[in-house]
Amino acid sequence: MSTRELTAALQRAQSVLRRRPEMGLHEDSPAFARWEGGSRVVTGHANGTQILSDMPVELGGKGDKITPGWLFRAGLAACAATTIAMAAGAEDIELAALEVKAVSKTDSRALLGIPDVDGESVYAGPSDVQLVVRIAAHGVAPERLRALVESAMRRSPVACALPNPTPVDLRIDVDPA
Fold first, then answer.
1. Is 131 helix (H, G, I), strand (E, B) or coil?
2. Which of 154, 155, 103 is nearest to 126 (CA)?
3. Crossing angle of helices 68-90/3-19, nearest 10°?
C-alpha cells in the first residue's frame, strides 16, 4: 500500500469514527496457544497463521525456535513501526526508511521460581525495555520526524500496555484427563 493509499484509508476511518465513535471499540483477534510437548508451543491466529516457539537449551528447550519473550518484543516493535507508519501517512509524509528494534532484559530466576538472595520474589516481566527507532523521510526536518515518532508512540497499543498494565482476567477450565 502506498503512502497515498494509506493516507486515504486512514482519513476514511477517521471520518467514520468521528461520526460513530462507538465503532472504535472492538474485540481483538484472539491468539490461541497449544502445548506441543516439552517447552514447545504453537500459537495461532484465526486466519491460519501459526508460530512455533520454544525455550533456549539452558531452559529445557531445543533452542531452535523463537521464544515467547521474543514474540513480546516483536509485537512491541511491529506495533510501534505500524503506528509510526500510520502517523506518517496521516501527515502525508513519505517515509524513506523506518526500522524499530525492541530490546529488554529478563531475569530467568523468576521463570524458574527462584527468589532473590534476600528471599523476595524476582520480577518475571522484562526490564530495561528500549525501542530504537531509525526513521528517514526526504525533505522532512529531523525535529518533525522526532515529534511524529513521539506522538505515534503515545498511540501505540502495545507500547501503551507497558506503563499502564492491563488487568488479565484469568479463567481456568480443567478437562478430565
1. strand
2. 103
3. 90
DSSP helix/strand/coil, 138:
coil
Cα 14 from chain centre: 23
Span 108-127, average pLDDT: 94
Residue that the C-alpha cell 520480577 belongs to: 123
Quote the cell numbers at residue 83: 503506528
Residue 35 near residue 53, CB atoms below 8 Å:
no
User: What's the average model confidence in pLDDT over 103-114?
Assistant: 94
Dihedrals φ, ψ of 82, to 5°?
Answer: -65, -45
The predicted-structure confidence for 26-71, as pLDDT tens digits, reads as follows 888 999 999 999 999 999 999 999 999 999 999 999 999 999 999 9
- The per-residue pLDDT for 1 is 66
Burial of 176 (0-12, 13-18, 19+ CB in 10 A): exposed
Buried b (16+ CB within 10 A) or exposed e, 156-174: bebbeeeeeeeeeeeeeee
Domains of the chain: 67-161 (3.30.300.20)
Give the C-alpha separation, 79 to 93, whole Å. Answer: 19
C-alpha grid cell for residue 142?
A: 529531523
Q: Is the distance from CB of 29 to CB of 45 less than 8 angstroms?
A: yes
